Amino acid sequence: MSGEGLTIRGLRVSFDGYTAVDGVDLDVRPGDLRFLIGPNGAGKTTLVDAVTGLVKATGSVRFGTNGDGTELIGKPVHKIARLGIGRTFQTATVFEELTVLQNLDIAAGAGRGPLTMLRRRKGIPQPVAEALETTGLTALRDRPAGVLAHGQKQWLEIGMLLVQDVRLLLLDEPVAGMSHEERESTGELLRRVSEDSTRTVVVIEHDMDFMRSFARSVTVLHAGKVLSEGTVAQVQADPKVQEVYLGRARAEESADAAPAVPSPATGEATPTTTASAQEA
Amino acid sequence: MSGLSITRRGLLTAASAVGASAALSACGAKTGSGTSSDAAGATADTSGSTVKIGLLNSLSGTMAISEVTVHNALLLAVKEINAAGGVLGKKLKAVSQDGASDWPTFAEKAESLIKEDKVAATFGCWTSASRKAVKPVFEKYKSPLFYPVQYEGLEQSPYIFYIGATTNQQIVPALDYLKKQGLTRLYLVGSDYVFPRTANKIIKAYAKANGMTVVGEDYAPLGSTEFSTIVNEVKGSGADAVFNTLNGDSNVAFFKEYKSAGLTAKSMPVLSVSIAEEEVASIGTQYLEDQLTAWNYYETTPGAANEKFVKAYQAEYGAKKPTSDPMEAAYISVYLWKAMVEKAGSFDVAKVKAAADGITFDAPEGKVTVDGATQHVYKTARIGKIGSDGLITEVWNSGKPVKPDPYLKGYDWASGLS
Amino acid sequence: MTVILNQSFTGISIGAVLLLIALGLTLTFGQMGVINMAHGEFIMAGAYTTYVLQKAISGAGVSLLVALPVAFLVAGAMGALLEWLLIRRLYTRPLDTLLVTWGVSLMLQQLARDIFGAPNVQTRAPDILTGNIAVAEGISLANSRLFILGLALLSVLALTLVLRFTPLGRRIRAVVQNRDLAEVSGIATGRVDRMTFFIGSGLAGVAGVAITLVGPIGPTTGTNYIVDAFLVVVVGGIGQLKGSVITAFVLGVLQSVLEYSTTVSVAKVIVLVAIVAFLQWRPQGLYTLRTRSLA
Amino acid sequence: MTTTSAPTTPAPEVTKATSPLTRFRVPGGFALGAVLLLGIAPLALTDFRLALLAKYLCWAMVAVGVSLAWGRGGLLVLGQGVFFGLGGYAMAMHLKLADAADTGIPGALPDFMQLYGTGEALPWWWKPFGNPAFALAATVLLPMAVAAVLGFFVFRRRVRGAYFAILSQALAAALAIWLVGQQATTGGTNGLTDFQGFFGYDLDDPANQRTVYFVIAVSLLLLMAAARQLFVSRYGELLIAVRDSEERVRFLGYDPANVKLVAYVVAAGMAGLAGALFVPAVGIISPALIGVVPSIGFVIGAAVGGRASLVGAVLGAIAVAWAQSTLSDAFPGAWTYLQGLLFVVAVGFLPGGLASLGAVIRRNRIRTRSGEAA
Is the pLDDT of residue D173 over 90? Predict the structure, then answer.
């Protein structure tokens, strides 16, 4: 049962005695669009860092499409990346001096042999063309990434994960600082991406509206531990969550945004964690 | 426009060029064929009313400290010679090139002086390394170089005149002096380059044959300024005297450390062969008082010729400017060349070389004579003591000019050296 | 045994100089991350300050003591000026800073040549600093080195106190740890940078005064020390005073012992290679400030 | 739906180089360079000037590598003197051995060893350099091997930026000091000099000196073509990506250490070849070409001309070398100021060097245009 998708057991990360992630267990199945929420310092980003090998951690993180999956703890970053695990950062990091096309082409090419590397790129590889299409950046492909708008950079990052043929996408606050329209587009993009039944998507987000609109399932972290898990509705109804989000949650979110839980726009706000992949 | 096609085009061009160069090289001489020597010869331009001579010194970089003074002395000599009517009725025009304390640059500038400026002779170089770098250039173009600095011997290029002392005119007399003083246990301290290493080889051979002992030997990288350990070792060695072949900045650090360690000229004198008046001024007499030096000339050397030289130099460059051995050697090198040219009646290098033997000059250091066979100069060896006023006064001299012997052939103990 | 003891004391002598020349860099390089190749020329400026003051004030001891604060101000002002003119424009480009300040260092050397002449100049050390005291049988420590050691330790103490307990120190640490946060907290980070640079460069000036007791004073004085100074800070670890202190003395003793058992050249090569190997083992140096940044 | 080895869709305008002017810019420029170096320069210059140019072209060859490693890869290679020196010494050792063999005396030692050495047999590590093929290969492969070993450790441990630069300098200093210290076997400060022949040809002969020039000029052009290919290849794009965000590249599944290693090793090989050809052209190799200052000198030209632009770096290297050699005689002091100022201005205020003047303007224009679009 724990063979598919991302399986985390007893994950623990400490910095100089401060424990940022404190024994987290987490399962995310393929086809899910899991949101990771929690107050500042809850350990969300650190958890993603640990999964991608950026920080040292103890415990077990396995990822695979069948069987037991591969243990990720202890592997270097680039080896983890080659297992089909990709991430974005809070501040979009694209290669500003390279064009959109070059950015995507590099992302697509981690497995290229030396001879291919030493040749000039001819034409546009199929996955790159598809990613351009999916992210809507086709018209901008020859622009240096540095001149893109903030939202476009985030899409480019997601596109780079797509061409990598990533099976597990870890997105760190992808809509921070975006306009309303950009958020909508990003959400749609994420939904399209996660429709592939073999992909697993995990999104760290602060934006509750965005979460309510697009999450299939939610995990709430608090002080390095899992506080609550379930559908948006289940989580929002959890008193422990309300406790943590006390003040802010009561005042602004539970009060006026709660009715939005069964989102009319998508009708997808109540899938369970075992949401079927047939939707795709 | 793929990269590949560019490369291909590049290769084509390259291939044709290789072809072209192969064709060219077909007319180049093979080694040992002997044809090349005629192809490259100096063509000094002496046709006009002036004759160009080259001054090749480091005007910038780390060696500028020393070499600028030599450059000044050369310019003074040129000025005096021109004021007195020039050479063979032609005024001298000095062309200065900056060796920039960098050996390959010296080689480049030497070539520039010979090929571009068509100088009749070149004066300069200080370090052995710069001389070694330009030697093939002067030999290739058969143009003469006058080298003004004491050096490690073991060299006799047909196109270099060695106006500074060779080892038997500086180091060997210095050892004679130490032996006479009963200072027989020596500690050798030097910079890590060819002169100190060769000098110390000679010293060790001398010591072996003369009942002296070398109790220690240390080399510091050129420019090194940390001498705690070396001085510590010197102090504990029980030596009678230190033979110092350090160069440049290292001397400053060494002598400061030496004094700090409580060592003095009384308890353990240091005999230096690279510290002249100029260096004394930059180290400080506080640290150097009563220490020994070995040269062929001091600012205080008696004689009318020296009085005139010191006066002229200070009139030109400032009243407090000291004169030193390499400066004096540089100064007389121009006069020696003038005398050779005038004896030969021509600027032609072969004739000048042929005329060199036996040329004498009443130099500030006393009478000097050119030895045609070695192209070195007979020089009087002088041991000096550094005074509190920064001047060096002579405490001993060899009595008469010493015949130059760059390969120390006249010394039995040196037979195994080279 | 005597040998080991003796070389240890010699090593401390060497380490004292290393520490003093590296101290300013622990601020400008260690705290601010600026690779200032002209730092050596601030040392040179301190040395020349001693020379100039000695011409004005005859007593060697008095002029040396006066030179300490004056050199601090002179070199500090040069540093602050350099920061204001160039370095502040280059904070995001550390490698370019290295090259730009190397250009500045060339110009400062030439300036010294034009003002004071190419040859080295001499200063007179006060007699009390030219002697030595016996530590044990056959082992002595030069007074000049003791003076440098004292000066270095005093500077470390003063610097620590300033960083820990003064408002300026708090600001400096705040800017180092989180520039953005410091800025929004109302700290004029630009002015703090300049002050940090002033103090760091000033310490180089103080080192320059002390250097006159043991080394040559000339246009290239700074270049003699600059690489060593950087190595001390690199090995000691960025942003950590204690790392530099330990490193300076360890390198000093290592150098001294190796010089004793091999030759100076070989010792130098071994020390350099050892440093390279050490950085393989600990790329961030002996002590590091842990941050959550990507780097 | 997404396969890793997807067919490529034909791209009508991947690059915007459609106008004839831009299309022939690169091959045209290359041809122009070839004509200038191989045709006009040898005809227009005296033997002496040509020899000088040969020396400058050697610096330019180093600059090609600097442009790759530093300009594209962001590796401030402040220790290129090490590789230049290794290449130079490998060549010089062979020439010295060949000269010794030419004397006809069996087992003759190179001249400097007879003077300063212990007078014993040739050190074992000199012996292979008697073989011309080995020596030639070593001029390039030895620096590359050293760079590979060094880079392997340094990049793996993520030593970078300032640390890498300072480390490079420390190594350059160490090698220079070591060479100086081994006088009996390396010639010490003097270095190796006074070469008679070059693979059987007499180096004193002006015709042979011209051949050396041609070899150098052709080598430079080849290196530039090779570097250009690397620049426009996928590897070149990846290298820029590593320079701009090493971590990000890591998350794409590449090991940035390997990407940097390739640039570093190639740059080292180029410096080695430059050093090897410098020896017959100038007639000397010495520790003075290896230490900290010359190593910084190797990046000056690239910085002034434009580190990221191949042509800029090459022209910059040639121009700075020319200025150094011409101005330092007339105004030794002023030249030092100018050199310092060049660094401050070129690196501090025009980081792309002189070559970027046009690009800065062009980029501004693109910015304006995209601003309008957005």
Answer: no
DSSP A146: G
Domain of residue B408, CATH code: 3.40.50.2300
Asked if the C-beta of C99 comes within 8 angstroms of chain D's C-beta atoms, the answer is yes
Are B20 and D214 a contacting pair, CB within 8 Å? yes
Per-residue pLDDT, averaged over A153-181, amounts to 87
Beta-carbon contacts of A134 under 8 Å, excluding residues fewer than 6 positions away, are A159, A162, A189, A192, A193
Look at the alpha carbons of D60, D65, D71, D74 in this order and tell me if their dihedral is positive or negative.
Answer: negative
User: What distance in Å separates residue B350's CA from the closest CA in chain C?
Assistant: 38
Grade residue A120 by pLDDT with cuts at 50, 70 and 90: confident
Helix (H) or strand (E) holding A168: strand A168-172
3-state secondary structure of D366: helix
Q: Around Cβ D328, how many Cβ atoms within 10 Å?
A: 25
C-alpha–C-alpha distance, residues A199 and A217, integer Å? 15
- C262 at the B interface (CB within 8 A)? no
Complex confidence, ipTM: 0.83
- The answer to whether B275 touches B365, Cβ cutoff 8 Å, is no
Q: Is B74 domain-assigned?
A: no
First to last CA, chain A: 22
Minimum distance, in Å, between the CA of residue D194 and any CA atom of chain B? 5
**B408 is a domain residue:** yes
Distance CA A172, CA D344 (A): 40
Average pLDDT over residues C269-293: 73
Write the DSSP symbol of residue B412.
G
Please give the CATH superfamily to which domain A30-49+74-258 belongs: P-loop containing nucleotide triphosphate hydrolases (3.40.50.300)
φ, ψ for residue C217, nearest 5 deg: -115, 105
**Number of domains forming the structure of chain B:** 1
Give me the domain span that covers residue B246: 167-296+381-414
Mind giving me the DSSP string for D109-160? PPHHHHHHS-SSSPPTTTGGGGSHHHHHHHHHHHHHHHHHHHHHHHHHTT--
Query: Nearest-5° angle of CA B166, CA B74, CA B309?
Result: 85
In this prediction, residue A246 carries a pLDDT of 54
Rounded CA separation B343/B338 (Å):
8
* Nearest-by-Cβ selection for D183 from B6, B107, B194: B194
For residues B234 and B232, give the distance between their C-alpha atoms in angstroms, rounded to a whole number.
5
- How many contacts, defined by CB atoms under 8 Å, are there between A and B? 6
pTM of the model: 0.85
Instruction: For B286, name the nearest residue in chain C, comparing CA atoms only.
Output: C124
First and final C-alpha spacing in chain B? 64
Q: State which of B15-24, B89-98, C272-281 shows the largest mean pLDDT.
A: B89-98
DSSP H/E element including B270: strand B270-272
* Distance of alpha carbon D73 from alpha carbon D262, whole angstroms: 10
pLDDT in tens, B134-156: 999 999 999 999 999 999 998 99
Q: Nearest C-alpha of chain D: how many angstroms from C154?
A: 28
What are the chain D neighbours of C105 within 8 Å (beta carbons)? 340
